[in-house]
Amino acid sequence: MARSAGADGRQRAVIESVAPIVDRGRFPIKRCAGDIITVEADAFADGHDQLRCVLLHRRRGDRTWNEVEMAPLGNDRWRGHFTAPEVGVCEYTIATWVDHYLSWRHDLQRWSAPEDIAVALAVGAQIIAAAAARAKGVDGKRLGAWAKELAGAAPVDVRRERALDAELDEIIARYPDRSLEIIYQPALAVTVDPPRARFSAWYEMFPRASAGPRHGTFRDCEARLAYVAELGFDVLYFPPIHPIGVTRRKGPNNATTSRPGDPGSPWAIGAKEGGHKAIAPELGTTEDFRRLVRTARSRGIEIALDIAFQCSPDHPYVSEHPEWFRHRPDGSVQYAENPPKKYQDIYPFNFETPAWRELWEELKSIFDHWIGEGVRIFRVDNPHTKPFAMWEWMIGEIKNAHPDVIFLSEAFTRPRIMHRLAKLGFTQSYTYFTWRNTKAELTEYFTELSRSWSREYFRPNAWPNTPDILHAYLQGGGRPAFMARLTLAATLAANYGIYGPTFELMEHEPREAGSEEYLNSEKYEIRNWNLDRADSLRDFIARVNRIRRANPALHADWRLAFHRTDNDQIICYSKSTPDLSNVILVVVNLDPVYRQSGWVDLTLEELGVAAGHAYPAHDLLTDSRFTWHGSRNYVELDPQRVPAHILHITPGHP
Amino acid sequence: MARSAGADGRQRAVIESVAPIVDRGRFPIKRCAGDIITVEADAFADGHDQLRCVLLHRRRGDRTWNEVEMAPLGNDRWRGHFTAPEVGVCEYTIATWVDHYLSWRHDLQRWSAPEDIAVALAVGAQIIAAAAARAKGVDGKRLGAWAKELAGAAPVDVRRERALDAELDEIIARYPDRSLEIIYQPALAVTVDPPRARFSAWYEMFPRASAGPRHGTFRDCEARLAYVAELGFDVLYFPPIHPIGVTRRKGPNNATTSRPGDPGSPWAIGAKEGGHKAIAPELGTTEDFRRLVRTARSRGIEIALDIAFQCSPDHPYVSEHPEWFRHRPDGSVQYAENPPKKYQDIYPFNFETPAWRELWEELKSIFDHWIGEGVRIFRVDNPHTKPFAMWEWMIGEIKNAHPDVIFLSEAFTRPRIMHRLAKLGFTQSYTYFTWRNTKAELTEYFTELSRSWSREYFRPNAWPNTPDILHAYLQGGGRPAFMARLTLAATLAANYGIYGPTFELMEHEPREAGSEEYLNSEKYEIRNWNLDRADSLRDFIARVNRIRRANPALHADWRLAFHRTDNDQIICYSKSTPDLSNVILVVVNLDPVYRQSGWVDLTLEELGVAAGHAYPAHDLLTDSRFTWHGSRNYVELDPQRVPAHILHITPGHP
Fold this sequence. Notes:
The structure is a homodimer. Chain A is of the alpha/beta class. Chain A is built from 15 helices and 30 strands. An eight-stranded parallel beta barrel of chain A has the order 11-12-13-18-19-20-21-22. In chain A, strands 28-27-30-25-24-23-26-29 form an eight-stranded antiparallel sheet. In chain A, strands 2, 4, 5, 8, 9 and 10 form a six-stranded mixed sheet that branches. In chain A, β20 (428-430), α12 and β21 (460-462) form a beta-alpha-beta unit. Chain A is globular, with a radius of gyration of 31 Å.
């Protein structure tokens, strides 16, 4: 609230409509280290007096504020900027006050009759003398002398000129009377994340599938790093790596019974070998894992772990902490169910347990454990089935101690819940991209993600496939569909990921017609992949990721703009840096079967192109070079060759 | 904030995006007694459990809440309603909780295997037994029996049927387990005003001009009431009625010197006869005023006073409270100035005085005085030059004691300031209507006023003229311009007013070319009006006000809708009651010179008309009757006759 009940009635200024802000300051905004943060607000007072307005900012915990003068934008709106320091939390707010010196100076310039000017000079002498008393030191002496001069005997026009001297203005601005200032409260928070929070390329793989047909290990994963690096990914993300339960273990294709030797689902966490802090013995040792994390980091790749707060019936928690689970009337532990479906191999936690505090602490300690092992990125499985308050507390505590940790929220669920999870602390969020396939769907959804106020807290991460979702478009669209979806994910969203090697090998058979489950899913068996298959998309993916890295326009989401086309199968959009020094224009043929052509109608301001001008458009995918003219240009894309252009636009150099 | 820091971690529900709300509850919304208030919110919990959501409401000061069940709208949005009781303040908020009974019932309907149903029935028996314990009495006994039955030995399908009995559902709904409920905080406030706050027609006149050429009195005003009633106005509003200063009194046309006998400006308040609580002796006595207020009320007319917090140099405050004024270096009191303009006959208060508390109390006592004399409506002059915090306090205190008082804010100033004044308590607000004359301007401005969220606190009052503003359109447009502007004000805004008799007598000469000041303004001299002039608009105005009273569609602003026309001089809009039982369609020719014609393209849903149907359109201004067809209809309006249609549409009766 901008003023408290017991405030001094002479505090005449008001601050309203501060931006950016999330739920009036209930939640922080998100930025990355080094970002320039622009803050705006309405600030005004009754009457015609002049205001000054300063932006206050500091790292959380600092005792003093840094101050930046805000500039009036007209219509009582003000704007200022500051730079997000290193990762952590910083705070900002706004102070404003009626500035009688400025009001006086403004009026003095408008008086013309000598008697009016004389009175104004006498008033000004008082104002400047008061500033002199606040200033002290050299500035105090200079201001004192100025006040005397204004009250002196020199001719009115001489004194007026002295009063309007720019130097006086500059000195006195440092000693305002802020005794009646208003400070917007409460101060607002910024979660400052590492740059990878905004720009990252994820590669998901089952570590046990790194050496098919045999069970792969962390050593095999280490050998796979070269491949992941070649493809250009900087996050290598593993499904759960913990011991897998044997009780009611699932068999291939989610069969309710397993055969000896079936590896089971990694999400059935916990066995006699341990729970969420243990490593499945067949993957290797703790030391193997640590070495993998180190080696990956030396290649610029972070290892991300999937954290799934649920237990197999064999998890040590089940016997050690029965109070953390719900029990059925017959005394057995309640397994997961979603009538008429039953998941007897999974025990969910009962978050309404009276022992919720101990449960929360234990679950937090799982993150702490893996942070201790060097992990800095976590993908959280089904966060929407755990209490919001727990996430807010847990992520807050963890980021207090380790502000560089990144949490990706897996929540393909109701939009309000996805947004709540993002607000309360998740660094990145899964999106509906997987199910947005038409031009209209993609345009509407990514316009919302990149332009609405939710961008202050919701950082999208776009996935064309996951172990749970093989969309019909990929099932039926063949190679062009995979190329188009990869291009869309990688250029619409600065954070994106694929689940491989199924993706680059274009795995596309569903378990059954109408299903989004993979046939012979890796969730239940170990597959044997031939990464060197001639038709693999590895080179295409590597090229797209190289383009991403080389072009800063693709490192952020806010400057995404869609451009009209006259063909519903052709989507066109651009991204650019704020200074337009890097401009990328993407055109994708969404039809995986037929060649499509049409005219695109560019919004030239988004590209920095002048109307009617010619400019080079360099296709970074095929290395073709075109000359485009003004806003209207012709495109033609053959899905059997490359279904997309990623054009680098150089507006200044025709 | 929806949850506090020390909350129980098992409280899993969340409430967000409550509407209506102003600045997250910092300010109340406004309604009138008897209004149905619709409240919506997002409410959800983690996971798939079912929620219940209730709307809580009470009069401020009551200890217990009234509860209304909210209905789910889908997508985690909920809605409920309550009726604003009598004038005063009421409060509302929302409570929600995870309802395990509802979740259980939902699941039970989806199980099909007998063993699953059996387990569910056993769980249900526990849930119902717990409800029985909460219920006690007859309901407790019945629920207890039900629980036993579910846990009994009857066949599963028989017990399942009993479990899903609608009667059980109805009884148990009264005894939910709300131990982990969330209540949205803080509760939100509604200022409930009298109906005249939303629907009123104001007539402003100088009481001293009620008997020209001599100085009129309150007795003369009493005689004028019949005329005001005939015209159909229900608020008769006077400029300040206090003793007028003699020092530096202004002469006719704002001359800096006055001649003996010049009456001076009523806004130069205060003389030896008294200040803001006194009546200018030439207007009459306190008893005369009281009688006028009573007589007016008996005719359905409220007397409104203009309250202007400023003083003439002769005001008793100036000598009694020099500390309430600013002083110049020579010791003289600072008069009002806006360089290079000077207003030496007006002393503004210095609201930065250390004695601000005493000043606020004294100014409040002015309202209290006139409330004591029977006045319930105040128009406040230049509220934007007095502290916002003072208005919030003063209006709050006054409405606490007298919730039926109406404050109209005169603030033709920066939009942020107009809105702030409305938020902090002014019942109605002047608008930019006076300067919105084209179809595009009117459409944009009234769409904003009637459809944007500001309507929750900003009630417009539209004036085609005031003593300070004679717009160029009226100066040059003749009779058609006055008729068009009257029609627009009276039908676009449920609250409107005119300054008469200048308006109905079509006074249109400016003091000088380019000025919006009246020539020979009543602000400085007493005019002599002939109300019986043959060309007076009194009959036209009376007819428009009769139409307003007879048609509930015109009693509110929120259901204003503009309809497309193919002629920029023809504006078309409708208003309707929410149930479409009263529908008014207005068409105005904005060109005061030429006959204009064109096609209007109606949005039929706004009118309740089915596409392609014929329906009667009765012009209430001319009593003409038309048959209109579907959405597209032809109109032609001759400004030399009547420049507008006010059509009563009867969609159901072709």
